[in-house]
Amino acid sequence: MNRISRFLLRPLAYSVLGLSLLLGATSCTTTARVGVTSDYDHSVNFRAYRTWAWYPQQRSDTEGGPAQGYESFLDKRIRTAVEQQLGSKGLTMVEASANPDVFVAYSARVEDKQRAVGSPYGPYGYPYYGYGYGYGSLYNRGYVTEYKAGTLILDFVDASRKELAWRGQGQAQVDNQTISEAEVQRIVTSILGNYPPQDGRPTSSQAYRE
Predict the structure, then answer these.
(1) Which residues in 54-90 are b (16+ Cβ under 10 Å) and which e?
(2) How confident is the model at residue 136 (pLDDT cuts 50, 70, 90)?
(3) Closest CA to 203 of 32, 41, 85, 33
């Protein structure tokens, strides 16, 4: 390759490199970390729970379902992910009329939020989301970015006592006004990573999912 050819190809190589870096940065922002918290009734023996059912008075999700005999996409995604995860933990799903050990309910929402940081990335190279843990002011230098936060709460209600036994919450940055199937799977998996609870284990944690 002569000198002129090398000179002409150099800008193209720089463009390809710049595009690669841009795509890499984009993948970091779309692969959001999941902030997870949980709390529970310490008097409950969670190992005794063998069967579960969806809470019969489950309220509608943010997309309006389930209603009129059909399910919204978000409702179906959440139910599928929860059923898979609880099945992997050895819990058997039954009908609500079959006297399960525990009822499970969920609530989900997507909100528009803002964060003020010194740069789009935190000190470790990850996009900084904050999650209200109190250290966002360290990076507040006047930059304000907008993002959508998807929040999912899972409640486990003791069927015999009709009392809340365990609650897990997960929040992550999402791309759209709804929560995609992959995002639902990541959030549900992160939340149920804290179930069943163990005494002495912290009830809140930061879970990272690629």
Answers:
(1) bbeebeebbbeebeeeebbebbbbbbebbbebbeeee
(2) very low
(3) 41
